[in-house]
Amino acid sequence: MSATPTPHPEWFGHDKVALWGPGALPAAPPAPPGSNARNQGDRALADALSKAGTPGRRPGDRPVTRPPKPQAKRRMRMDGESALVTRSMRRLAADGGAPPPRTHVNPVWRSVLGPVYAALPWAVKRRVLRLTSGVRGWRRGQ
Amino acid sequence: MGEPSRIAVIGGGAAGISAGSMAKRTNPDAIVTVCTEFEDVAYSPCGIPFVLAKEIPDFQRLFLAGPENYAEAGIDLRRETAVTAVDMANRTMTAGGDVVPWDRLIVCSGFNYLLPDVPGHDLEGITYVKNIRRGMELNETLNHVKKAVVLESTPLGVEMLSALAHRGIETHLVDEGSWLLSQIADPDIAEPVQKNLEELGCHLHFGVELVRFEGTNGKLTHVVTSEGAIEADLCVVATHKEPNTVLAREIGLALGSTGGVAVDERMRTSIDGVYAAGDVVEVPQGLTGVAVQGLTGSHAMQQGRVAGANAGGGDRVYNPVYIPWGMMGGQIQIGGASFGEHLATAMGIPYVVGKAAGISRARYYPGVQQVIVKLLAEPRTGRLIGAQVVGGEGVKERADFLAFALGKGTTLDEIAWMENVYSPPIGALYEPMSVAAQNGLAQL
Q1: Which ipTM score applies to this complex?
Q2: How far apart are CA B113 and CA B240, in angstroms?
Q3: Domain co-membership, B85 together with B155
Q4: Does B392 lie in the same domain as B372?
Q5: B156 and B260 share a domain?
Q6: Max Cα-Cα span within chain A
Q7: How high is the mean pLDDT of chain B?
Q8: Of B275, B246, B247, B244, which Cα lies nearest the Cα of B262?
Q9: Exposed (0-12), middle (13-18) or buried (19+): which is A2, by Cβ within 10 Å?
Q10: How close is the nearest chain A Cα to the Cα of B128, in Å?
Q11: Which DSSP symbol is given to B257?
């Protein structure tokens, strides 16, 4: 089968109004009053306003999380990325008169692995990045 | 004829809804069930900051469809229905107490913000912008807010800074980084946005660490930083988008180096018959092959379409990403594609820079705006490796074009000699991207 995407109309009509109406613009106005979408918006607003300022938990009121204990490859990436980004930011900040970053950097990455990585030629770095990225089953980009 | 295929989708955001819709379209006989723990689907969460800013007059127009539309399309949409367990042996999932069988499963469980793990993080007044009904409630709360803090200058953080300032609220930014949008933008490109936000009255604190939240009677009163305490009735947390992999980990899906679910170009996970898409997955960056996660709504939607088509029996692929991005910061547009100088420096990618300050229309045409383009290219070949743009208008189209050009391996020489639209109301004689490329060629 072909992997080439073929055009498909969207399901629910926001493309069907494209190029219609006086002057043909805007191409996709918001859902009009009385439409299913608008009715759902009205119901949602009425519900939210009835709850505003009242106590109690609701879906999506605290969409926040502690990350799970990282696997080794994530730990390595987090520490490496933080060290390399901080190092670059510190340099560019100094050039532009901005304050230094306040990020925490793993000391091993700051003093050993960061400088070692920096000393590698780009061709080697690129191989290291590709080998350690964990990405499998993708065609290559440019 | 055999039994119709059963396709279950976990999540009703951009990825989940587009996956369910595309699965049904690809295989109209399939039984498609979409479960979301939230009240609404098919709305634009990205529009919420602009309603809060009162630039969009109401929330209702952010809705694109109602639940009735999905019923008419033959999709079993179950709202306020959390999926609490997935039985891989029997290929079923428990959703709101029901056992839902599936032959193909698509995991689109999205993201949560990274918890600012300091004392006081559960005080009332610490707020997140993600769900539309909670956004509607926040809109009411903002009528009584005098002082607010935004935590981190991510794209959402910057949009919320603009929104709060636009509502006349004294607004502070607290950011560990050295400049605005430092995770994605270079300091010279972010500078016009930073200045504009300051002109709008925002107080920007960079290189500053969050220490704790303080409150009285359970309600936030101060955000304490390494540089002192900031009085605040409200704090908008706009931290990193952490993939929501709770179910994915229970199922046993392989995770990648970002913590997101590892997928291949057909959005297949490590387990046969299980797909994933959206903010929960990681995909490779086109230039380096490095996995990236937490992209934009348009990425989530396209990934969902690919996952849905393949789960429905089709054969589609999703390509490595070059990540065009763009946004408003205050009254300025900023965007780019792939790497800027900062990230290229961090990764050790060699580059030359071509930069130019051009204009968006003919210089004499009313409303003409400055457009600054910065291109990064490989020193030897001149092949484009990244771009950033800031200006009054025309940033989005340039970011889209440059991402496409990056994917094609375009060189500075090709951009320097490209054709461009010249029409006084919409384009200047000299295209700023072309001028930037010419300046870059001089560095090769």
Answers
A1: 0.91
A2: 6
A3: no
A4: yes
A5: no
A6: 66
A7: 96
A8: B275
A9: exposed
A10: 7
A11: T
What local confidence, expressed as pLDDT, does residue A27 receive? Answer: 46
| A64:B237 CB<8 A | yes
CB-CB neighbours of B162 under 10 Å: 28
**Given an 8 Å threshold on Cβ–Cβ distance, is B67 in contact with A40?**
yes
Residues in chain B where the model's pLDDT stays below 70: 1-2
* Residue contact A52–B249, C-beta within 8 A: no
**Tens-place pLDDT, residues A57-115:** 899 999 999 988 888 889 999 999 999 999 999 999 999 899 999 988 999 999 999 99
- Is the domain of B147 the same as that of B67? no
- pLDDT value of position B231: 98
Residues in contact with A62: Cβ distance below 8 Å, sequence separation at least 6, in sequence order: B128
Q: Which of A92, A116, A125 to mutate to test the interface with B (most CBs of B within 10 A)?
A: A92
**Chosen from A42, A79, A133 to mutate, greatest number of chain B CBs within 10 A:** A133
* CB contact at 8 A, B333 and B390: yes
CA–CA dist B311, B7 (Å, integer): 7
Contact A134 B40 (CB under 8 A): no
Residues B270 and B198 in one domain: no
Can you tell me whether residue B124 is helix, strand or coil? strand
Contact B354, B342 (CB under 8 A): no
Binary contact (B289, A117; C-beta < 8 A)? no
Q: How far is B429 from chain A (nearest CA, A)?
A: 27
Residue with tokens 């609490």: B84
Does A41 contact B60 at a Cβ distance shorter than 8 Å?
yes
In total, how many domains does chain B have?
3
| pLDDT value for B268 | 98
CB B237, CB B127: distance < 8 Å: yes
Same domain, B90 and B153: no
Do A103 and B342 lie within an 8 Å CB cutoff?
no
Q: Using a CB-CB distance cutoff of 8 angstroms, which residues of chain B are in contact with residue A12?
A: 42, 64-65, 69, 73
Q: Which of A43, A84, A135 is the best mutation test for B, with the most CBs of B within 10 A? A: A135
Q: For position A1, what pLDDT does the model report?
A: 39
Last residue of a domain, one of B198, B221, B237: B237
What residues in B contact A74, CB-CB < 8 Å? Answer: 255-259
Place of tokens 């359970």: B218
CB contact under 8 A, B179 and A71: no
Residue B318 in any domain: the answer is no
pLDDT in tens, A30-59: 777 888 999 999 999 999 999 998 988 899
- Point out which residues pair with B148 in neighbouring strands: B171, B234
Both tokens of B280, joined, read 């929960």
CB count within 10 Å of CB B66 equals 23
Locate the chain A residue with the closest alpha carbon to B82.
A59
Tell me the whole-structure pTM to 2 decimals: 0.92
Question: Which residue, among A62, A81, A82, A91, would best test binding to B if mutated, counting the most B CBs under 10 Å from its CB?
Answer: A62
B22 and B106 housed in the same domain: yes
Residue numbers of the domain that contains B28? 6-42+63-111+242-311
Q: Which residues of A touch B346 (CB under 8 A)?
A: 81, 84-85, 87-89
Chain B contact set for A42 (CB, 8 A)? 60
Residue of B nearest to A98 (CA): B178
Domain boundary residue, one of B283, B311, B339: B311
